[in-house]
Amino acid sequence: MSTCATASRQLAEPLAGTAATARTWLLIEQPGPWGADALTASHLDPAVGQALDAAAEGTGVRIALIRRPGRHADCHRPGVHRVFAAHTAPGRSWIRTAGIADPADLTRLDFAALGAGEHGGLWEPYEGDPLVFVCTNGKRDRCCALLGRPLAAELAASGAEAWEVTHIGGHRFSPTLFVLPYGYAYGRVTAHGVKEVLEAVRDRRIVTGDCRGRSAWERPAQAAELAVRELTGEEGADALDVTRTEGAAPHWSVTVAHADGRSWQVAVEQGAAEPARPESCGRAPGMPARMDVISVTPLRTDAPAEAPGGPGAVSPRS
Predict the structure, then answer these.
(1) Mean of pLDDT values over 150-160
(2) Is 252 exposed, middle or buried (0-12, 13-18, 19+ CB in 10 A)?
């Protein structure tokens, strides 16, 4: 195991509230090698990568390159690129997919609509097994290649719909990944653990162990939603939604609502992960920001009784 990943486990930095933020993902198949900034340093035309990056800015769409696990030979021959667009908001999650010959066509997408959760009949609905995307970009962080590539290969060999993906943040938690359609990210994972996650997603459930958060929300809301799941034992993928986030770093108040009418106010504070540790393999130690849940307080209790954990404020998660 790499020094970076070993240090992450030993220091036991909390995972909650560390997922990349993306209400909508646009995932573009691009085989061959990837550079640190894959959109402009791969066998994708750099001009197309720049145009896509500019088109997505400020829309809530996050773009990443993907490839099938295994050898990454690419002879630059024209071919079909598999693409996925996926919206991750609770109750409105969807995945659309197509095979395209020219990624430049993607620059004409309505990114604002996609970020708002409106696909407008784009492409075909994806109705297969849950999709799992394992971060493997060794040019961005060698831990992701050392730990992510073997995991992606093992998952693919087991029959999972597994892909390698470029930068999704949280390298110190390698191997790290996210799963669609719901957009929950995980870190420090094993193949066995991922298979449990995928089985739960097939049943419209969420596994919270090793979970970093749902990409639909900013980091404080990710931590708040996971804290409510921990309190109530709720597993339903779309049972919880974040309806309000107030405040600014380092203090937030997040309202989490249940589909049955219950709601909670979650106090979240930004702290610093101590002692210092590398945020990425090979980098100097630092103290990355962490999201600490201070309390979870019921706002409405006139719905069905609490699941295990009961009502009332709770102490911090970590």
Answers:
(1) 96
(2) buried
Provide the whole-model pTM. Answer: 0.88
Q: In angstroms, rounded to a whole number, what is the distance separating the alpha carbons of residues 292 and 313?
A: 14
In whole angstroms, give the CA distance from residue 239 to residue 91: 8
Give the Cα separation of 151 and 188 in Å (integer). 11
Please give the mean pLDDT across all residues of the chain. 88
Left (φ > 0), alpha (ψ -120 to 50) or beta: where does 210 sit?
Answer: left
Amino acid at the residue 47: A
Residues 6+ apart with CB under 8 A from 244: 253, 254, 255
* CA-to-CA separations, 176 to 70, 282, 315, in angstroms, rounded: 18, 17, 27
Are the C-beta atoms of 99 and 82 separated by less than 8 Å?
A: yes
Q: What is the pLDDT of residue 24?
A: 98
Query: For a pLDDT cut of 70, what percent of the chain falls above it?
Result: 85
| CA–CA separation, 175 and 148 (whole Å) | 5
Distance CA(1)–CA(108), nearest Å, equals 43
Task: Determine how β-strand 131-135 pairs with β-strand 161-165.
Answer: parallel
Per the document, the length of the chain is 318
Angstrom distance (rounded) from CA 49 to CA 107 = 9
Q: What is the mean pLDDT of residues 9-14?
A: 66
